[in-house]
């Protein structure tokens, strides 16, 4: 079987982590780079990624995540937070970065920049917040795939109260909103879930070829 598919079959949403095992700085940097290189709409990456190592903060977050033990037992806790009311400033910063990175005049991209600004700012603030929240799922996907390649366990979580996590970490003051949590580390030998067969739809149920 393809190695990538082997790793996808190996991974699962870990329910119990071995708190004694920590991810090396080298592997953590690879995971961070995988997140950084994720695709996003227009390439804008309208979100921040918060890595919570502080055990006291993680203990405070746990009740807001329905008491799930992964929050405190995993090697690292990663929170994806979308930018609230993303607009012209964020877009301008992206095009300045593009100009500097590719060494091309900012003026040469003016038409496209104006198009992106129009497409995004024409949305209501609610729709923009929904759009930026969706972008974090693309980054999460890259994290899950990269972690599997490194044989690092990862558990994506939507089961938490965003407003409480925002308050604990002060995200609302930064114009951010927690959308996703991912705990990463190494499965505990006592986690019985690792022995369960993966349950997915069959090709016939899932795919439609037209």
How would you explain this protein's 3D organization?
It comes from Flavobacterium bomense. Its cofactor is FMN. InterPro entries: NfsB-like, Nitroreductase, Nitroreductase-like. Residues 10-186 form the Nitroreductase domain. GO terms for molecular function: oxidoreductase activity. By secondary structure, the protein is α+β, with helices and mostly antiparallel strands. It has 9 helices and 4 strands. The chain has one domain (15-189): NADH Oxidase (3-Layer(aba) Sandwich). The two termini are 27 Å apart. It has helices at 3-10, 25-36, 55-61, 70-73, 88-102, 110-121, 125-149, 162-169, 203-206, and strands at residues 47-52, 76-83, 153-157, 176-185. α2 crosses α7 (125-149). 45% of the residues lie in helices and 14% in strands. The protein is globular, with a radius of gyration of 19 Å. A 4-stranded antiparallel beta sheet has the order 1-2-4-3, sandwiched between helices.
Q: Spans of 5+ residues with little confidence (pLDDT < 50)?
A: none
Percent strand: 5-15%
Which structural category do the helix and sheet elements fall into? alpha+beta
Number of helices: 9
Q: Which sequence of strands runs across the widest sheet?
A: 1-2-4-3
Secondary-structure arrangement, i.e. CATH architecture? 3-Layer(aba) Sandwich
Sequence of secondary-structure elements: HHEHHEHHHEHEH
Tally of DSSP β-strands: 4
* Average predicted local confidence, pLDDT: 97
Specify the overall morphology: globular
For the report, how would you describe the main beta sheet? Answer: 4 strands, antiparallel
From the N-terminal CA to the C-terminal CA, the straight-line distance is: 27 Å
* Overall radius of gyration: 19 Å
């Amino acid at each position: 079987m393809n190695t990538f598919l082997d790793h996808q079959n190996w991974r699962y949403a870990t329910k119990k982590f071995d708190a004694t095992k920590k991810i090396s700085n080298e592997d953590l940097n690879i995971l961070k780079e995988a997140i950084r290189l994720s695709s996003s709409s227009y390439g804008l990456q309208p979100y921040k990624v918060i890595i919570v190592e502080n055990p006291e903060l993680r203990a405070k977050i746990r009740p807001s995540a329905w008491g799930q033990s992964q929050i405190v037992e995993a090697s690292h806790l990663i929170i994806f937070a979308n930018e609230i009311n993303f607009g012209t400033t964020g877009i301008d910063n992206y095009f300045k970065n593009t100009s500097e990175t590719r060494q091309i005049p900012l003026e040469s991209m003016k038409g496209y920049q104006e198009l992106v600004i129009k497409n995004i700012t024409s949305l209501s603030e609610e729709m923009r917040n929904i759009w930026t929240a969706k972008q974090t799922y693309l980054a999460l996907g890259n994290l899950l795939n990269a972690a599997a390649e490194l044989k690092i366990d990862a558990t994506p979580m939507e089961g938490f109260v965003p407003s409480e996590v925002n308050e604990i970490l002060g995200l609302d003051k930064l114009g951010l909103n927690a959308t996703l949590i991912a705990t990463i580390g190494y499965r505990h030998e006592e986690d019985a879930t690792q022995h369960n067969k993966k349950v997915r739809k069959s090709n016939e149920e899932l795919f439609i070829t037209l």
